[in-house]
Structures are given as C-alpha cells and as structure tokens.
Amino acid sequence: MPVSRPILLTLLGAILGLSLTYCISSVARLQKHSQSSDCTDLIKPLRGTGFILMGIMTAAKYVDTRAYNVWKTWAKHVPGKVLFFVAENTESVHPELPLVRLKGVDDTYPPQKKSFAMVKWMAENYLDEFDWFLRADDDLYVRGDELEKAYAIGQAGLGNSAEYGLLALGSTDNYCMGGPGVVMSRETLRLLSPHLKSCLEHLLTSHEDVELGRCIRRHVGVACTWNYEMQKLFHNNQTAAKAYTSDLSEVRTAITVHPIKDPAVMRRVHIHDRALRLQALRARFVSLRTERSDAQQPTLIRIIPNSSRDLTPWDYINNNKILFCADRVNCPRHTVDLSIRTEIGDIVTQLFEEFNSNARQRGRVLQFQSLQYGYMRVEPRYGVDYVLDMILWFKKFRPPHRTTLSVRRHAYVQQVFAPLQAISDRKMRSNLRRSSNFTDENSHLHMILPLKGRAEVFSRFAGHLKNICARAGDISLVVVLYESEDETTNRATIEELRQSFVRVEVIEMDKAPFSRGVALMKGAERVPNNGLMFFTDVDMLFTCDALHRVRLNTILNAQVYFPIVFSEFSPESWSENDRLLADAFHYGRRRGYFRHFGYGLAALYKADLVAVGGFDTKIEGWGLEDVDLFEKVVKHGRLRIIRSPEPGLVHIYHPIHCPESMPQAQRQMCHGSKAASLASIDALVDQISHYT
C-alpha cells in the first residue's frame, strides 16, 4: 500500500528533530567535560619532541673511563638524549662529554643523594620534552634499537640472599633494580618529582634503587612489573666473575646489559650489538629482494657442475665437536673452529625464533635440544649451505592435548653473501699503524731463545742464523742459557756467532730448574720497552722472508703475531721423494703439517707483553706457558691477534719425551703433540693396509 505524502514528511521531520537534539546535547556534554581538569590533562597536546632522556650516574674516578666509553659506544645509537650526572666539583679531560654537575652532591657511596638529585634535575629541566626517562649506572649497556620497542620499566628485585626480608618491603612489594636501569614515563616522573626530597629524608635502607622504588610506589602508585621476561630484557649478571667476556648469547634478547665495568668488554658488547643490527638489516634486505617480481626462487641447487671437479665437497660435523674435511689445511679431521660453532649457534637461535614466532596461535613451542650431525659447504660465489640434523623438544601447551615429545628434524639453511666490497690490505694495515706510536717496519728484531743442552741442534740453529742474518736486517739473539752437560759446546757455538758479527747476549741461569716461561721473561727484561721480540725455539729453521713478515705482522699497541709453523713428521714415515730432499723447506702431505694448535712462537713488542701480564712464571718445564700468553692477549681486548700458516718457519722433528713427573695438564698436552707428530694420515693408512 503506498504511503501518503503528508505521512512521509511527518516521519522525516521527526527523525531530523531527534538527530539535531542528540547532536546539540552531545556537544554540550563535551564542552562541559572539557572544562574539567582531568580531561584537560588527558587531551592536552604533548609538547615533547624526544623519545627518551637517559641519565647516567657516574663518579669522578670513572668519568674519563667508564662514562666516556659509554659516550663513545651505545650512547651514539639511542633514540633520545644521554646526560652524565656527577658530583659538583667533578672535571673531565673530554670536553665533549655532556656532564651535569649536581650542586651540593659529592661521590659518597651509597649514592642515594646523587640518585635522587639526578631524578629531580631531569624532572625540573626536561619533564615536558621527553616521553620516557631512564635512570642508569655507568656500567650499563643499552641497546637503543630494542629500547624503543619496550613497554615495561625494569627488572623486579627483592634483594640478594643476605638481605632478603631486611629491606622493609611488603609481602607483595618489589623495586626496580638500579643496575639494569629504571625506565619511567613522563607522568610517573611528574607525580614523583615533588616528593623526592621527602623520600630522601626518610630512607629505610642504604640502597638507592630500593628507596627510589619505594618512593615511586608510595606517591605514584605503581611498582616494577613482575613480568618474568624482564629478567631477559633488563639483563643483570651478578654471578659470573667475568660477565660478558666470552659468551654473549644474553645480549641477543636484552634491552640493557649489566654490569660491564671494563671498557674493553663494553666495546666488545657494542661491536656485537652492531653486528646483530647489521645482521637483521641484511636479513630484511634479502627478504625484500626475494619479493621482487623478477627475483629468482630459492633453490638448494645454486650451481650445476659440468664435472666432478666443479663440485664443492661437504664438510661433515659430528656432534658439533669434530669436523671432517678435504683439500684444506688441517684436513681430514680437526676440532670444529670456534667461528663455525658460533655461526651454527646463531643459525639455531634464528631458526627457533622463526619456528616460535606464532607459537601462541598454534598452541605449541619448539625448543632446541642438541645437534646430532651436520654438513656444511662454502659456495664462493653465493654463500654457505648447511644441512643440520637436530633433536628438539616439541611441546603442546593447549589443553586437552598437552604433551612433550622429543623429535628429530632436518634443517636446510642457506646463508647468502652480501654484495661484494673491497678493502685494501695496505689501507687496513696503514690504519692500524696510525693508531700505533711506533711504525718502523725495519725495526730491530730481538730473538729470544731458551737453551738447555741440545748442543748439536743449537749448532744447526746457529749455522742457519749466520747464513740468513746478513739478508734479514737488524737482528740480535738473546740466549737464556741453563747449565747442562753440553754447556761448553754451546758457549763455543755462541762465540762463533759473535765472530760472524751476529749480536748475541747471554743470560746465565746456572742451575735453576728449567722453565720456558721464566726464560722468556728473563730474555724480555733485556729488551727496551719499544723493542720488537720474537720468541723462538732451538728446533726452528727460518727464512729471511719469514723474519720480514714477523716485522710486518707485529704492530705496537695494536697487533700480536702467532705464526702457524710447519712441523715435520718423523722421517721414518716420509715418502721416498721426501727423503731425497735435503732442504727443510718442503711441505708435502707426508713430510709434515702446519701445527694450528701451537702458540710457542710469538712476536710482539715489549710494551704489549707487559700490558697483558707476561708469561706465567709458575709453570715449570715445557708446555702451557704459550697457551696462557695467547689467552691473556685474547682477553686483553685492545690487541688484535693475527695467525696464519708461515712457510718460512719449519720445526725440525725430534723425539718427544713426556715424563710421568710432569703435571697432568702438561703431560696430556705433551702426549697429544707427540701423537700428532709421529706420522701423516697417509702413512697411517699405509700401515693399516698391510693388515687388510
């Protein structure tokens, strides 16, 4: 039935009237509420232009070390501003360091007054210019890129085992641990600022972070989150004596890392963080490149060989410990290099991050258990291929099908090389030498030789030295001589060297028990502080080129050289052709091998030896003193180590004796060296073939 025109107009008028009435009343309500202070605070436009202000609390004795190291590393990469808060009269030798000198504050410890004054200063000067505020110590590392993603304020603490229950905390109370950093919002700081003076006057403990947390809880009404994940995000490692000096796996998931008191460790963590950032950007680049319409689809076969010679052999990794390979140094079997173990660890971490990226939606989580075996190969034009056989835990956590299973899975992984970049070795070496205050590539070389007995071997060493000394530049020999039956013969050989115009200095050790570490330190005492030293053995032969490379590869305050020498096998296992060669500088598979596990020969400057702590003089006899020095150089941080096979250094074979009186660690090393030097793998295969 059609609707009449008057009725339609009446309905439209009613709808229009109701709509206008509703709009007018809504506007009136909004105007009324906009006049209230609560809503005004909520809708007030923010004047802030910065994301976060970081206040770093430091002291006069650390301002030019820890604080400056923070300024030169992670402070350059945070999405905000970094300020360093110090006592009133603190000075720094670095004028660019942004210091805030707090009036009436000294370096008294515990620093409650400094901590509260710092928070008060930030509130009074920057409250409306930043959204977030971080209170931190000078031994903290902050990953700025990750901090920008955070929503929480710190890691909850209750006190250590000795102080648990003695910090005047309620049964459900906590505080944000000051070490890993405390993040506060602008509104938290606004409400807290007027009460800081009162809180400072009513302290219940000597811990400034506990008292700051108590003040926030009392006057702002918020406490540190109990979220378990905060232990990873705001990482605090107080148990390890040498935190972050070796494994850096905690850094990957952390926003802040604490404590880092050594500037060298701070730089190491910073380099690792930048590497993680670069890794993420490269992964993003590869992902975007594969999304292009003209991109090639991923394939496990990146090259099609024309013949078997074009095939790249796979390396087999057994349980992430032993690597079997072909056609390279140290093949066919050797311990998996640290670089490979680290890379596989990073790959596994990335794999399981991707596996578990949507774990909540799927109701299951995968956890890595162990690596059974794996294969890897390097395709020089493309990248690295991996086949990994892993055991993992498969956990379903969604009822009613909760279960935990141990399963095996294969992972096929390809790492793609980045675009080619070229750097001149000459440029890199020049940069290293610019950082050194001693750059003479023709510097005087002090060879230091411990000697006890071995008259015939020393005579061979001396004859070789006389022949090359005229061509090898400025060289002198420091002999640390122990008393022995061959002492008379050795002294006669030394006189022959002197008559041939080789500078020889003798250090008398008389009847002292032989210790290679002690002998080398005694020899180093005779070298000037900027002198270049080469620690050698009497069984070594060397070329003029080798000594030249010793000079090139050793840089004062920058680089230490540990050459990988060629070590002969027992001549009884040599091939017939090897026996016909009178010259020692031949490198057949059956003649010898490059001793990658030896660190006995080393070149460094006297100042660098002193800086790392020198040799351990408590070690008697041979062995371990070289490994100890190598580890000291690694841990020092400032010095770079260069290792490479050196064909100009040949260790002549001699029988090795391992007395039962040797300490266990040295005896074990001695037996390993003895076994490795007996014969090549080829010779052992020939021996086995006689019985098959």
TrEMBL record:
A GO molecular function term, named singly, is: glucuronosyl-N-acetylgalactosaminyl-proteoglycan 4-beta-N-acetylgalactosaminyltransferase activity
State the UniProt keywords alphabetically: Glycoprotein, Golgi apparatus, Membrane, Signal-anchor, Transferase, Transmembrane, Transmembrane helix
Quote the InterPro entries the UniProt record gives.
Chond_GalNAc, CS_glycosyltransferase, Nucleotide-diphossugar_trans
> Which terms in the GO cellular component ontology are assigned?
Golgi cisterna membrane
- Pfam families reported for this sequence: CHGN
Where's it found, cell-wise? Answer: Golgi apparatus, Golgi stack membrane
In short, the EC number is 2.4.1.-
Question: Where does this chain mainly localize?
Answer: Golgi
**Membrane topology field:** Single-pass type II membrane protein
Q: What protein family is recorded?
A: Belongs to the chondroitin N-acetylgalactosaminyltransferase family.
According to UniProt, the name of this protein is Hexosyltransferase
